[in-house]
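[SOLVED] Need 3D model of a two-part complex

Original post:
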Amino acid sequence: AQRVTQPEKLLSVFKGAPVELKCNYSYSGSPELFWYVQYSRQRLQLLLRHISRESIKGFTADLNKGETSFHLKKPFAQEEDSAMYYCALMDSNYQLIWGAGTKLIIKP
Amino acid sequence: NAGVMQNPRHLVRRRGQEARLRCSPMKGHSHVYWYRQLPEEGLKFMVYLQKENIIDESGMPKERFSAEFPKEGPSILRIQQVVRGDSAAYFCASSTAGDINTGELFFGEGSRLTVL
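Solution:
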């Protein structure tokens, strides 16, 4: 079955500390994975996609096929990173399958 | 470009009434997606539409739910005879034909339905 799992509903870290938001997936084909973010009072928006191998706002995510993971990382958290983060997998019909989301809180 | 517009933002209905949620995609976008988010859960795909066509409705409940995207006007998600379990946030997203396989969707702010 195709599934995206974000095991943490809530993650709280101090400003300046490293952040890792976990995402695991289950998919039989070659996965395309994404991270979306929703800042307070804003719309859900694309943060980054694995195929682009890009770093956005200091965040990176590496696809690990052996561990079926696509964890989102940032070495030094900033207060403006506080948001809801969703991991998503695109299936063969170009539909996105979503994780339940992780609420990230950066403490000052 | 105002982005994807959804209305109403909040809707309260009593059991048995009808709920209509509207979504105007971004200018130039011809693909619309509806998602439902239940409390404490992720987004669940409901339906994917292009103008005047339902492309994929595999996520739509078989009864009471319907969606349309007419040639003119917004896309509408209609829920007949609502029940308490329909209480959720309903999100609309749009894309261009070229965005489909990039995974980038542009979301509205959502419509929160509460069934009393």
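Edit: Chain A touches chain B through 22 residues (CB under 8 Å).
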